[in-house]
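Class, carefully examine what follows:
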Amino acid sequence: MSEWSWMAQVKRIPATSFLSPAALMACVALGLGTNALAQQPAPAAVPVGTVMAEKRAITQTADFVGRIEAVNRVDVRARVTGYLEDVLFKDGSTVAEGAPLFRIERAPFEAAVEQAQGALERAQGTLQNATVQRQRAEELLKTNAGSVAIRDQRVAEEKGAQGDQTTAEANLKTAQINLGYTEIKAPIAGRIGRTKVTKGNVVGPDSGVLAQIVSDDPMYVTFPVSQREFLALKTNRLPADGSAPLVSLKFSDGSTYDQKGRVDFVDVSVERATDTVLVRATLPNPTGKLLDGTLVRVAVQADKSEEKVLVPQSALIADQQGSYVFAVEDGKAVAKRVKVGVQAGSYVAIDQGLSGNEQIVIQGLQNLRPGVPVLASPVTLTTGRS
């Protein structure tokens, strides 16, 4: 073979014959990757369940922490000092107004009444004699058989005897009152607490509270309202027609009290230390379920309803920037920032961010991202709204 023939054959060798094995594999991989990208299908639509955001008139409510208080509360005390003969009630029972509760030994007070009665009778006798002497002195003075000085003395003696009789009558009345205090009676109807003293003790005005009675129907609930919430509820003036805001209660276990009441008192000044206004409502308590001193949640309804956009609570998503929901627009998921308002049963009111009639996602949220295609299916909710 000639030199020129050998060179011609060298020129016909493909250029790839001079690439290293690693470079050759990279070229192959690049070509395959480009083809795979070109053939990748569009992402599948995510199935979601949706409901329509709707406008609805709701009554605004606000929640507070309150405490149950008895309308009437009385600390039973002894008004005279004496030996306690008997306790006439059972701890925790319901007592009627005027029912006897304690009995103090009567004998010393009966004796005091008799002594006062005797003193009164002596004063009456002295007054009767002074009156006769005064009349006699006046008759003698008319016939010039007596003197003016004696007549004046008899008049003064009669006045003194009248004063002694008045004092004796007052002493008798005081003794009779003290005798009546030996039987301590219930000043109001209600439930009575545990007795602080037992039979055999000496009790008196310095003995402190013997027992406490609280009325149990109706009951008050008092709760502080911040100045901002106070202005929002517009309860600073209670209407004269009785249409004050409604109040409902929840207990610490989450149960709801089956009776509702109305606000009947708003304090006349703001507590400067807390910037709150004390508000009170009255509720019926026919079964005695409300106990004096119980801590409760108080829901106050505003007197007028407002139209709000409502969405189910299950549609809300929260992050560091606040709350948002996913809406379906043109077959894709769109995130909408919202300002959440009051709760209405299983729904929440949206104050800002929605205008109503948006298709809101409530199912399939875990797979959603903004801009992802979705396959929306309407969902019928069985939970109610309040």
